[in-house]
Amino acid sequence: MSNFVGTSWLGQLAKQGADYYLALRCSFWILVLPARLRFYSLPGLLQRLTPQRARLTHLDEADIHRTARIVRRVARLPVFRLSVFPRICLRQSLALYWILRELDPSAEIHFGVCKDDSDMRAHCWITVREEPVLERAPLAQFQRLYTYPSPTAESSWGIEGCLVGQMQD
To answer: Which 3 state secondary structure label does DSSP give 65?
Structure first.
């Protein structure tokens, strides 16, 4: 029985260590995000974030949500609210895409807009196996403009980050 308790304790310690390591990696990655966005276009950055070969380990839903919660906590740290960093939605989605894409090749990042009365709002979100990850906003109200990796090669980004090409439903 003591061996089982020891193994369980070590397993928990290893899991906590992996969570702290993930939070540390995510923190450093978000710290350099403003420089990356300054030197690369968004599609160029997404291409660099996408590994040539994912580990091909399809995560279960619990691991995906655990990873997403850690990324969300890190992205919401007060230091990342400074004006040099992008808004929460973009920094959280880019960091989550970077981490999940390393682990699961089905991770995608989506960008969309929604028009309310006179306001236009933009939003980005992550899906894994076509299921949104930790999304509170009703996504049906957003017109999807861009998905990466793109299911079709038809859409591309034009000058100053404007989308040129076919809109997706």
So the answer is: helix
